[in-house]
Amino acid sequence: MxxxxxxxIGEFGLIKLISHDLIYRPEFVKIGPGDDxxxxxxxxxxxxxxxxDTMVEGIHFTSVTMxxxxxxxxxxxxxxxxxxxxxxDPIGFVISAAFPEKLYTSWVERCYEGIRDCCKEYRVxxxxxxxxxxxxxxxxxxxxxxxxxxxxxVRRSGARRGDVVFVxxxxxxxxxxxxxxxxxxxxxxxxxEKHKHPRPQIEWGTLLREAGASSLNDISDGISxxxxxxxxxxxxxxxxxxxxxxxxxxxxxxGRKAGIDxxxxxxxxxxxxxxxxxxxxxxxxxxxxxxxIKEIGVVTDKPGKGVFLKQEGHLELLEVHGYDHFEK
Length: 328
Ligand SMILES: Nc1ncnc2c1ncn2[C@@H]1O[C@H](COP(=O)(O)OP(=O)(O)OP(=O)(O)O)[C@@H](O)[C@H]1O
Ligand SMILES: Cc1ncc(C[n+]2csc(CCOP(=O)(O)O)c2C)c(N)n1
Ligand SMILES: [Mg+2]
Hints:
Blueprint: H1 6-18, E1 29-31, E2 39-40, E3 46-56, H2 68-84, E4 89-99, H3 105-121, E5 125-133, E6 139-149, E7 164-168, H4 173-182, H5 189-196, H6 202-211, E8 215-218, H7 223-234, E9 237-241, H8 249-258, H9 262-268, E10 275-279, H10 281-284, E11 293-300, E12 307-311, E13 314-317
Parallel strand pairs: 4-5, 9-12
Antiparallel strand pairs: 1-2, 3-6, 4-6, 7-10, 7-11, 8-10, 9-11, 12-13
Helix pairs in contact: 1-3, 2-3, 2-6, 4-5
Bound molecules: adenosine-5'-triphosphate, thiamin phosphate (TPS) and magnesium ion (MG).
Residues 82, 85, 218, 220 line the site of magnesium ion.
């Protein structure tokens, strides 16, 4: 028997197929999926945070770089990561999907396995969505709602002179993984795993908010863009020490073999979904000994606002070369 496509079962058959195991935090749900809208509640003393992010076939993934499961996982991870970057806890998620009619139903089922696994792990309710046809590939948009104690959301604009600049994890791994996937190199499985299954840093976002982080941003477009966004929003200069950027051993090794400086993956690659931000020296003491965080620079009062990269004793302007959807 040939495999079923979504046009064989129709829009409502498809919705039925994926509509199970959607709620992982029932305490916040008043009316769940299945009605015209879902109704959720939030506890007293919290603000709500909302953000949205899209995955487009041919732009964010191809059948070579990501499986259906991976697309589902990463759609959730990239959305939840924006909650981490606000110091918030994601609680609810909706998905708008546009699918070509020839897509196999099994693709959609596996994609929703990835979605379910990520929602389950981070305890986020899948509150509903929308399905339409597409004449040019798969497009999936997620919208996430999170909660944060009132008036404590961490902005990009709070960096102050003297603050430490920190980063979590190993930025550059995702771009290294993408390079490996596009060059059919399966050896660097750790990097590939980071590209396919990034982990939104919700715990770090909460810890850093509680510790007093003055600014936060998640690394979706590369350190060079994210840190410049913080400098601009905060009206400060930032100095980054190039040698302290925590590139992983695997990225270093693969970069050496491929003849690529892995720091360019960290600075300009993106999709790491790690956190970058600033915090006072005193507050950094509270978190600096935990594994997975690294001081990489300082907020300065250098005139001429911008970001400077220190290497071998001299400073150069850190220009933004991160991912830009519309750059030629
Ligand atoms: N189409 C749009 N309409 C209104 N506001 C937008 C639109 N696209 C982006 N923005 C806003 O511009 C700001 C920057 O958007 P951007 O997409 O760069 O967010 P990000 O978190 O830096 O990146 P990512 O998309 O990777 O999460 C956000 O506050 C976002 O809400
Ligand atoms: C096949 C393929 N080619 C290139 C890339 C790289 N890429 C695409 S979008 C993006 C930035 C984040 O997106 P957004 O800003 O929309 O959140 C990056 C780094 C990829 N993932 N797959
Ligand atoms: Mg973001």
